[in-house]
Amino acid sequence: MRKWTMEELNRLSPTAFKAAPKTNIVLVLENIRSRNNVGAIFRTADAFRIAEMVLCGITPIPPHKDIHKTALGATESVAWRQESSAAEVVAKLRESGANCYAIEQVKGAEFLDQTTATPDQTLVLVIGNEVQGVSQEVIDACGAAIEIPQLGTKHSLNVAISAGVVLWHFFTKLRPTAD
Domain span at residue 91? Predict the structure, then answer.
């Protein structure tokens, strides 16, 4: 066994990435404070080839050296846009038929491992502020929530880690079949 070489990894160029089939996921970031978290989430979004990221509220936007430091260029490959209101973004996407979920610990949330999705439906996942989480207004706009089951003493994960866990779960179900 040996590590792959850079050539063997056969990475897509940003242009080829943009043309490649995407995982039918829209990731909405609501009021994320840390540029490093935003960059890490961009990098994860690139890894799982999601359709789009929407940066809302106070969430920092590229270009910025701290975002670039953790994104490693993923801000150039992942489609993204900035919007002021996550609740309005979610409401519009939900009206268009998307299934919208706040990733949050709330009464009535589905546990992630019991959540399913199909490739024919757009899946909107909202990640909230590092301290306050997803706002109640956005939870209401989503109409549904997903909780990551946790057994430790903290019952809390970093937002970039949460995004990675949730994106991996849905990537295994929605992975694009053609490259």
Answer: 21-174
Query: Domain containing 112 — which CATH number?
Result: 3.40.1280.10
Answer whether residue 14 is part of any domain: no
CA distance 83 to 166: 22
Cα 142 from Cα 127, distance rounded (Å): 12
CA dist 7 and 24 (Å) reads: 28
Assessment of whether the complete model's pTM goes beyond 0.85: yes
Distance CA 142, CA 98 (A): 10
Assess if residue 4 is contained within a domain. no
Say if residues 94 and 143 touch (Cβ distance below 8 Å): yes
Question: Which of 9-18, 88-97, 121-130 shows the lowest mean pLDDT across its residues?
Answer: 9-18
Is 5 exposed, middle or buried, given 0-12, 13-18 or 19+ CB atoms closer than 10 A? exposed
